[in-house]
Design brief:
Elements: H1 5-14, E1 19-29, E2 35-40, E3 46-47, E4 49-52, H2 59-71, E5 74-85, E6 89-90, E7 96-110, E8 120-126, H3 136-147
Parallel strand pairs: 1-7
Antiparallel strand pairs: 1-4, 2-3, 2-8, 5-7, 6-7
């Protein structure tokens, strides 16, 4: 996956230290209730469509950009599903990052799903009862989105 220029610039200054980064996830449904998934080129896993926001980019706008860039699908946002701090991760090159993820429920407007960049091996629509193997966090996010009532989920203070 290509690393955004602003991250490369940060990495020149901080090396492999942990970066806190804004991310977005799209749960895109078509009129038949199928969900749009992409098979990642970096690890071969099927996932929801995700991406990183550029500096100053509005989350919903950036998420729709990512959906189009990766799948050639034009979507519209229905509502924010959740805001979550994900677990820190370490990339093969030693870089460490932690994402603040905003997940949006969206609907398909136009476009035939297809690989539209070099980040995916395949893209497609899947019925919720006939999904490929998804990472547990993506399956949890999908279930939360399918059950959402329009009130965003977030961790509340105890």
């Amino acid at each position: 996956m290509p690393t955004p220029d602003f991250v490369l610039e940060l990495r020149r200054k901080v090396g492999h230290d942990l970066l806190w980064l804004p991310g977005v996830t799209a749960v895109v449904l078509d009129d038949a209730g199928r969900v749009l998934l992409g098979q990642r080129a970096d690890n071969g896993r099927w996932t929801l469509i995700t991406g990183m926001l550029e500096p100053g980019e509005q989350p919903a706008v950036g998420m729709l950009r990512e959906v189009y860039e990766e799948t050639a699908v034009v979507a519209e946002v229905l509502h924010l599903v959740s805001v979550n701090s994900q677990e820190p991760m370490k990339f093969p090159n030693g870089d460490r990052a932690q994402f603040l993820d905003l997940t949006f429920l969206c609907r398909h407007v136009s476009g035939d799903a297809r690989v539209n960049d070099d980040e995916s091996l395949a893209v497609g629509w899947f019925a919720p009862e006939d999904l490929p193997d998804l990472p547990p966090s993506h399956l949890h996010t999908l279930r939360r989105a399918l059950a959402s009532d329009g009130v965003p989920h977030f961790a509340r203070p105890e």
